[in-house]
Amino acid sequence: EAFLAAFQERIDAEQKIEPNDPMPEGYRKTLIRQISQHAHSEIIGMQPEGNWISRAPSLRRKAALMAKVQDEGGHGLYLYSAAETLGISREEMYDQLLSGAAKYSSIFNYPALTWADIGAIGWLVDGAAIMNQIALCRCSYGPYARAMIRICKEESFHQRQGYEILITLCNGSDEQKEMAQDALNRFWWPSLMMFGPSEGQSVHSQQSMLWKIKRFSNDDLRDKFINATVPQAEFLGLKVPDLELKWNEEKQGYDHGEIDWDEFWRVVKGDGPCNRERMRTRRRVEAEGAWVREAAHAYAQKRADRQAAARVAAE
Amino acid sequence: EAFLAAFQERIDAEQKIEPNDPMPEGYRKTLIRQISQHAHSEIIGMQPEGNWISRAPSLRRKAALMAKVQDEGGHGLYLYSAAETLGISREEMYDQLLSGAAKYSSIFNYPALTWADIGAIGWLVDGAAIMNQIALCRCSYGPYARAMIRICKEESFHQRQGYEILITLCNGSDEQKEMAQDALNRFWWPSLMMFGPSEGQSVHSQQSMLWKIKRFSNDDLRDKFINATVPQAEFLGLKVPDLELKWNEEKQGYDHGEIDWDEFWRVVKGDGPCNRERMRTRRRVEAEGAWVREAAHAYAQKRADRQAAARVAAE
Amino acid sequence: MAKDNTLFTYLLRLADDHLILSQRLGEWTGRAPTLEEDLALTNIALDLIGQARSLYSYAGAVEGQGRDEDQLAFTRPERDYLNALIVEQPNGDFAHTIVRQFFIAAFMVPFWREMEKSDDEQLAAIAAKASKEVAYHLRHTAEWVVRLGDGTEESHQRMVEALEGLIIYTGELFENDAIAKAAIAGGYGVDTEALRDEWRQTVVQVLGEATLELPNAGYMQKGGRDGVHTEHLGHILSELQYMQRAYPGLTW
Amino acid sequence: MAKDNTLFTYLLRLADDHLILSQRLGEWTGRAPTLEEDLALTNIALDLIGQARSLYSYAGAVEGQGRDEDQLAFTRPERDYLNALIVEQPNGDFAHTIVRQFFIAAFMVPFWREMEKSDDEQLAAIAAKASKEVAYHLRHTAEWVVRLGDGTEESHQRMVEALEGLIIYTGELFENDAIAKAAIAGGYGVDTEALRDEWRQTVVQVLGEATLELPNAGYMQKGGRDGVHTEHLGHILSELQYMQRAYPGLTW
Fold it and tell me: Which residues span the membrane (chains C, D) (predicted)?
């Protein structure tokens, strides 16, 4: 009890918690779940965009897309490392992903069907991610907060890049504009769902707030995102696919239509358009790479043995 | 000795030899080698054309190409059956193909790079094959001769189809004409090689002639092919890539330039552009289909067992 | 005009189903587990492409803008393809290909049978021809379902995986959306909802013989009829369209 | 003019090598055996595409007909691509990808080093940048060659197969044909024949450490420099060119 109170005091004083600091088991578990889920999202998120590397329409865009997908892999790496500071191994987290025990952001269960989707993913999906992540830069757990700072910088770059793809399309031919509008139509609602359902009086969420793992409610972050994004859509000359969307002078923000939470839960539970495909791909990659990892391990072992033998011989 | 003489008498009297007839071991072996090689050529020959099914430029051409490749599979089937009448199983022949012990026509080790190649393969490769096969329709071994009659009909159809592809290209845009000329440039010499080297006094070849397995020399068939094909090239407005090609009024046929027999032997021995790829594909197909064949076999076995058991129970 | 638009879309959906499925099957040509099966799969692919050609030609005539079968088949953007999602799913192993074809054939048999009664004479004529063809597709694939289901342990397991992987794409075949309803109301379309029980019966009966079970479907994926596909279609199109895209407007 | 034509072709060959190889490596992005290797392979692919861009841009300037890097990269017919055959070979398993990249890197290291001395300032500048990059490619792939060769029995066997499959495509890299000779005579090209021994030394040394042997090559395949490719290139191009072909002349 005294420990919990002291811990809360540190949190309240905005002190960062570091790996070797004592922490409540619930705090550790919540963080492991959240950080590993975030890492998994980066890894699975490589798939929809990776799907367009071979078909990117110009060399510049191809290079940028490759670099972006690579950055996502890099973010996965930092985040797995951050989670490892809490006493879980990357392998264990990976197993949880492959077995379906761990989740990843359900946005990546939507397909990237056209080149405009690559723009929309950057603009909307990375945009929504950044809203969440900016808040996390001030998370009470030091390694996570620091990973977030680095990731946020790169994500902002990706978001601008995605928006710039759409600017190009919207300045282009009719087909290109149509492609851009179609991408917005398909990615708008799933992007709003990325913030998660309204939390109401969820105990879980309140505890996260108290521990300063989470600093804003889902609805607040979603509203912020909408308020930032609607003018960007207008600038592009695109129509946000929400008939009920309108400016509310009083709250100085937008009111929006009802989100289809049935769809959200369906996709979370595994019945989105690409859930099975994403997991099948990930499992196949794991299986096909097994011999390589075994070989690397065997070689490292042999090498260590040889060095040990050489040391013995030298003595 | 008396048997050999009697056999030769039957041959000379143009009697067909049938599966159950007595025949010299050399006759049997020569036929097995030739027929199975011919069957293998049909099977491997499905690859270069099969490579264009997914990209055929119109629905009509796609359907025709699929049907053509299917016919080749069908020819493979007849020919394996014809060879089986000589006392060898399809599996055994297949093993010889996969192990590299048996050969197939080396023309199929050249790649089909453009759509025009599909035309050139039909026109030249099937054209050359027909020259050989028409002669084989009168082969002394009955089942082979009969298979050839059926195959020749379909091959002629394929040849016309191929030529028609090239007519369309040659009546088309400059790029299409260029594509057609390029295909002729690449397939002309390998097609001439299909008839095999000049035989000189080869004992092997003379014996085949005597047994009426073979009825014309390689050079005669090649000349016939050239004489038939050059005017067709002229009709297309294409240039045969042989600077030494010219009409010889005296022999009422064309003289042609030197064939690169080094290339021929190199490709026969395994160093053509696609030899390894063709065998790799064939081996992969065999390996990937193994479980299917096993399952079919297991099911047939179970079914037979059940029927036997039912009969026993009924008695 | 409205009728024509609906009919055009209705035909395009059917034509795209046939084209994309035949493109998939064509990937097997020269690569099937046995030579006999190579010929059989190519036969089915040829039937499908033949049906696609009739449907595209008719669609082009209905549209009345001078687009021929090839322009419709090869030069539309991905989002304008209206095939059901099941036909674009990868061939996978032979079990997947057989299950996909079996599911579809078990649907197409009653579909074309009902279509033979269509008020639209051309559709009825296409249906009469197709009916005979799909009867063979169903028989052939059903035989393989039984053989593989009741074959070895491995083949059985592969069939279980194929059934689980593909079942979620079967629901879309039976949905009567606005276009389908208009086509039914117009007297030329088939009420696919009404075919569901028959399909289920056919499938369950064959699976039973194969010692297999129809998995519980759960949520059925859809979107193809509105041009919202899986990521596979784009890759199919990059090959399918290559020549027409690289050399627009030429005759081949 | 004649000089420019030769230089243009010379640049195009190099540019196509880099583009096609980066396209192949890009197939690994998100699919490599480890996360770290995913980043490493993508790094190499990014270096290659960067080199391709410089080379195409320069080629376009030399040609002087207003073609930019994308028009050169995306809108030529298959027979006009001049890359060596080795870069278009399929990724195969990771062993094949590593061997392919190792063979090429062991060639590119001395190639770019010599190119730094080119009379052509732009080529020399491209070479200076590329030299640093390929040094890493060689180091990284050599490490894998050793790890896989001296890893498990399976990895060793896979390496043996990869070496045998790819060795026949290495000869083409060193051939000085008429274009190459003209480029050498012009003072801007590299005499690749002269790099053969160094390449062999590098390769044999690393393979030795990996308990592997360089297989006997026999006949070396060639044709890429004249646009006569393997059947793989056409399929690469159908994806690579898809957008530019489907939507010609647009800005992306």
Answer: none
For B25-46, what is the mean pLDDT? 96
Q: How far is C185 from chain A (nearest CA, A)?
A: 30
Q: CA of D93 to nearest chain B CA: how many angstroms apart?
A: 14
Residue D224 lies in a domain: no
Average pLDDT of span D211-234:
96
- Nearest CB among A111, A114, A266 relative to C230 is that of A111
A164 in contact with chain C, both atoms CB, cutoff 8 A? no
How many domains does chain C fold into? 1
Distance CA D145, CA D230 (A): 26
D245 to chain A nearest CA, in Å? 9
- Host H or E run for residue B3: helix B2-12
Find chains touching chain B: ≥3 CB pairs under 8 Å: C, D
Q: Cα separation of A291 and D152, whole Å?
A: 8
| Residue ranges of A 254-293 with Cβ closer than 8 A to chain D | 281, 285, 288-293
Burial-class residue A239 by CB neighbours within 10 Å (0-12, 13-18, 19+). Answer: middle
Distance separating alpha carbons of residues A178 and C76, to the nearest angstrom: 14
Residue-wise pLDDT for A167-214, tens only, equals 999 999 999 999 999 999 999 999 999 999 987 767 778 888 888 888
Do B and A touch, 3+ Cβ pairs within 8 Å? The answer is no
The answer on pLDDT for C1 being more than 50 is no
**pLDDT per residue over C192-237, tens digit each?**
999 999 999 999 999 999 999 999 988 999 999 999 999 999 999 9
Pull the structure tokens for residue C97.
């290909």
Which domain covers residue D98, as residue numbers? 3-217+229-246
Across the interface, of B112, B114, B271, the residue whose CB is closest to D79 is B114
How confident is the model over B195-229, as pLDDT tens digits? 999 877 677 788 888 888 888 889 999 999 999 99
A113 touches chain C (CB under 8 A): yes
- Is D46–A76 a contact, with Cβ atoms under 8 angstroms apart? no
Residues C217-248: b if buried by 16+ CB within 10 A, e if exposed: eeebbbbbbebbbbbbbbbbbbbbbbbbbbbe
Query: Is B176 close to C250, i.e. CB distance below 8 A?
Result: yes
Q: Distance, in angstroms, between D246 CA and closest chain C CA?
A: 5
Residue that is written with structure tokens 């989707």 in the block: A117
Which residues on A lie below 8 Å from C229 (Cβ)?
111, 113
In a domain? residue D66: yes
Would you say A199 and A217 are in contact if contact means Cβ atoms under 8 Å apart?
A: yes
Cα gap C88→C109, rounded to integer Å: 20
β-pair partners for B246 = B255
Burial (CB count <10 Å: 0-12, 13-18, 19+), residue D116: middle
D24 within domain boundaries: yes
Are residues A53 and D32, on separate chains, in Cβ contact within 8 Å?
A: no
pLDDT digits (tens, 9 = 90+) for A70-112: 999 999 999 999 999 999 999 999 999 999 999 999 999 999 9
**C-beta atoms of A50 and D23 within 8 A:** no
Q: What SS3 class is residue B253?
A: strand
Predicted ipTM of the assembly: 0.95
**B123 DSSP β-pair partners:** none
Q: Do D77 and C235 touch (CB under 8 A)?
A: no
What is the per-residue pLDDT across B95-147, written as a single tens digit (0 to 9) for each?
999 999 999 999 999 999 999 999 999 999 999 999 999 989 999 999 999 99
Nearest to C238 among A55, A175, A271 (CB): A55
Residue at C89 is within a domain: yes
- Residue B254: beta bridge partners? B247
CATH, residue D233 = 1.20.1260.10
> Which amino acid is residue D132, in one-letter code?
K
